[in-house]
Amino acid sequence: MSQNALAHLRAIRRELESRVRESGTIVILMGASGQGLRQRRRLRGVLSRRGLLALVPEDDFPRDIAPSLVERAMLSEGDVDLAFINLESWGTATEFGQFHEIRRIARKLRILVDHQYHPLHSNSRSYLTDLYLTHLAVYGHVYPVARARRSLLPSVKKTVTKLAVRYSQWKALH
Questions:
Q1: Among 3.40.140.10, 3.30.200.20, 3.40.1180.10, 3.40.50.2300, what is the CATH number of 24-173?
Q2: Residues of the chain with pLDDT > 90: what percent?
């Protein structure tokens, strides 16, 4: 390989890496409070180190506006690329149910559910599992995650990081 060809390939590589770093991907991390909030804050740091702007509603959204209003506005009107909802509470289940009905928001949703409630991994006949199946069939973004450390399934952290980083790369190169 000639020196010119090698230099050209290196320049392309630097350009691609620069585009990925500067993609401006915005991710919202939604889920339960308590331990779930601590987990989302740690995950925000992981994603930030990978060059993504990760938002945690409790910390990053206006506190003087009702969460149910500001979250909907941010997801529908904002420049948000992805919204990960870790379904661990009735509040997040309610958010999912509401956002699933709004097409421009629903396409951004990445639903994380315990594998025992995932519509392809369980026999649950609950209303929520049924809604997961509909969302999966229409939008294709319902992911089983492990709650226990010793599981064959990936953790919430691994799932969110892998999906968000790949989306950011795709966005930068398209």
A1: 3.40.50.2300
A2: 55
